[in-house]
Structures
1.
Amino acid sequence: MYSSELIKGTLKTIILKLLSENDKMYGYEITQKVKELTGGKIQLTEGALYPTLHALEANGILTTNAVNVGNRIRKYYTITPTGKSLAEEKVTEFQDFMNTMIFLLDLKLKTV
Amino acid sequence: MYSSELIKGTLKTIILKLLSENDKMYGYEITQKVKELTGGKIQLTEGALYPTLHALEANGILTTNAVNVGNRIRKYYTITPTGKSLAEEKVTEFQDFMNTMIFLLDLKLKTV
DNA sequence: AATAATACATAAGAAAATTAGGTATATAAA
DNA sequence: TTTATATACCTAATTTTCTTATGTATTATT
């Protein structure tokens, strides 16, 4: 796991990117997907995730659709067109930020 | 300027890296150096910088040396050996984090 | 003379995560 | 069969950290 301070500020970007590439996802699924894709290095906590999802919904960036799975509720989130362009902005900004940090921290780069 | 949420968590890493490469620096100098190196894209605020410097000093990561420049005080910070290895850890961690994010966000760069 | 730049510092408030707890069903292991 | 783990949602108190604002004071520029 990375130090939490490092991950801070990337939560929204991660959520929006995942929802840009998947029609719909529910909260728990997002935590599992991120854990899987990062080999456990990023593990979203529910206390951070759910309030953020609610805020994104309140701002018209995501919409929800509650579904019954057996006797359990599952809340699917879908990204809106507004959300999709926000996602692109966020990813681009992060990429720009990384380039700045690479220069500032004097790191070496390799294209793949 | 990047959104502040994005910069959060990198402040210590930036400070420690700069002080690893410079014998001594004072607070104001750090803000100017970061501003200069990032073309104004990262501008450290005093309200964030000074408390962080004080905390790093309290934890034995930095030591200080106050100097009179004319009638004005300047507080030089120097990194300790403990601080130097922490700096390396922090930079390595950030690099690792970037690689994880590059993969997660499906970007085309990789740091070495 | 007034403004901007240099140089330090702190305190109130806001924002966001952590920690901890709550509810509940389904499945696997002991 | 009972216990633990996994699934699946949620929120509230606390902590952490930054922003914003303010304060002091010297030096340089307009």
Note: Residues 5, 8, 26-29, 32, 46-47, 50-51, 54, 69, 72-75 of chain A lie near DNA strand D (CB under 10 Å from a C1').
2.
Amino acid sequence: MNARSNSGSSPLLLIENQLCFALYTTSRAITKQYSILLKDLGVTYPQYLALLVLWERDGLLVQEIARALELDGATATPILQRMEKLGLVTRKRSAEDERRVQVYLTQKGRSLYDRALEVPYELGRATGLNEQIAKRIIKQMNTIKKHLAAQNRNAAGL
Amino acid sequence: MNARSNSGSSPLLLIENQLCFALYTTSRAITKQYSILLKDLGVTYPQYLALLVLWERDGLLVQEIARALELDGATATPILQRMEKLGLVTRKRSAEDERRVQVYLTQKGRSLYDRALEVPYELGRATGLNEQIAKRIIKQMNTIKKHLAAQNRNAAGL
DNA sequence: TCATAATGATTAGTGTACTAAATAATAGCT
DNA sequence: AGCTATTATTTAGTACACTAATCATTATGA
């Protein structure tokens, strides 16, 4: 049974709309919770994500950070500029290739690491899901994203 | 096993961070897909959601629409103002209570209904999940939101 | 080689989202 | 009635996110 066969019910209640709406509102609720937990650190959720990848590997390109966060470069740039203004990172044009900009953690950026370790722990308690269910949801989210990407690849290929 | 006991692995890989990140990126991917499907209608995803609730019941207050979309009133107002500029709705101060603003669909707003019915159908194909799994995810998202709300109620009560 | 394409980053412009503060009107209380 | 608290909406200010366009630099290929 697909959505079309369900035309008697209201569009608000169609399962596809419900699922997307649930993800939309839950994602916002989580981001809000992160902003509470990250207030002490003085960073936002996307900034925290950028820190996570830089703590993994320093000196990444703007593009690499954007790809890791699944963000457009045009979104990553202003985030990293704000982080530079906060004194968390520095941005340097690469010498070999002047197009590239590498992002490095400052001492201050590195210093947030220890306090940041507490964040996912506190947030994990807040979501109230066990690890097994969380893993299943992560897999299903990846399924959705893969499906959407394939859909758009086909649409672009026409 | 909680996050703390997992202190050997990187913070990026902690299950809580992974879950939240998956929801964050998937929600954005879905919104992007909606924006493609809604381009013909000339509305954004939040505007589409507002239309859904108004098609259910016309003349709702700004606050009621905000609550239905789980948005702050301060976010709903500019969305509805843009929709008014697009000629989709009109906003009228209530006569009995001058604080209240009621939102009504215009003829143009009503006329989008038929085309909008196709949207969740096309999006459902795009996500690639069956109804049963979708329903389970919706339930789990509600669990997370309830948990977060309870957490914050307790924090406020201290 | 040199015109052209591709790449990496940024800027411009629009539309959310959020908190906090302002505004205006109504409700409640004494 | 008049003071105070509450309610509904809006405005102000900050920070994403997205598309499209721009700019500089590097890669390419006839």
Note: The two ends of chain A are 28 Å apart (CA to CA).
